[in-house]
Amino acid sequence: MRAMIVRFSRALLLAPLAFLAAVPAAAQSSDSAAADRYAFTQEYAPDPAIWVIRDDDTTIYMLGTIHALPRGFRWRSPRINEVIEESDVLVVETSEYAQAPDAINADTKLIGRIARREPTSQQLSPAAAAHWRNLVEQSFFPFESIDTMPVMLALLSLGSTGDGSGTSLSAFGVETILEREFRARRRPIEVIEDSGAVTYRLLRLENAEIIEDLEARLIAWDGKPIGYFYNSEFEERTGNDYWQAEHAWARGEVAEDFSLGFGEGAIGDALDELLLDRRNTEWAQWLEERLEQPGTTLVAVGAGHFEGDVSLLVKLRERGIGFERIN
């Protein structure tokens, strides 16, 4: 099973975390020691997986992406370059250059929710609250900002900073590069969903069961490095081992199973349903409707959406929509 580890959460969760674009500078920087520690090599020709859906007058390419990558990480292939040239429009999860109709303002919703909720630390036992503070302090976020944030967004935000190596940046991510190229060609960019609506669902995903699960996880974690909170089998890695998931993706590997890394329990079940199952179901419907629009479209969304038993590919099969992998 390919599990989503802490720093890799950006590979799938960019849309819900879009409002956190201003990550503290410390989390977005790396010194020479970090560069050496996380140095990588790519002794292979990149060829990330691409699928296509076709009918008489419509072609839709689907590319699994990684939203944040280290400088110099190669992922372009001749096939991807051909798809870019052929496509009339780029569709991504979220973009500063496009907005869904009647988009929800997630910032306004978040401010209102924060004003009304009791800080997470005050909902926990003293022992769990101490671990909660320790967990947050291992990140690059001020404690108060995370403590007042709805717990699901707080956990995803903490996960997005990972171990603080700062070696993966959205500036080098696939969507950023694709958006730049489509804009240079004066081709339109669209979004497949309202990221504000996804964020709003996360804001509302908070109840006694979620807090109880967080309490149990914090006690079990017991103050270890942050990676162990998200994955009890976490291993600290360096060099190419650190980039195993990115290398697998760049080689075109697609795992049969996929996990967000939160395991079983109220938190993991809720996030799997919301961020994987529900979104993939909605995207499959979007793709079915898009087949009614002639032209060639490149849909570039997180690679994790193409893996597991509730993947976008599974949802397409359930709708009877044929597709094929082209590489």
Count the DSSP helices: 15
- Rounded mean pLDDT score: 88
Could you estimate the helical fraction of the residues in percent?
40-55%
Oligomer description? single chain
Order of helices and strands: EHHEEEHEHHHHEHEHHHHHEHEHE
What's the gyration radius in Å?
20 Å
Strand content: 5-15%
**Tally of individual domains:** 1
Shape: globular
Enumerate the strands of the largest sheet in spatial order, edge to edge or round the barrel.
Answer: 7-5-9-3-2-10
- Report the count of strand segments: 10
User: Any low-confidence stretches, pLDDT <50, length ≥5?
Assistant: 3-16, 18-30
The first-to-last residue Cα distance is: 22 Å
Structural class: alpha/beta
* Major beta sheet summary: 6 strands, mixed
Can you characterise this structure?
This protein is α/β, with parallel strands linked by helices and 327 residues long. The protein has one domain (2-14, 41-325). The chain is built from 15 helices and 10 strands. The strands form 3 sheets. The chain has a 6-stranded mixed β-sheet with strand order 7-5-9-3-2-10. Strands 1-8 form a two-stranded parallel sheet. A hairpin with a 3-residue loop joins strand 2 and strand 3 (58-65). Helix 5 (126-137) crosses helix 10 (208-221) and helix 14 crosses helix 15 (312-318). The longest helix is centred in the last third of the chain and has 25 residues, at 266-290. The chain is globular, with a radius of gyration of 20 Å. Mean pLDDT is 88; it is low at 3-16 and 18-30.
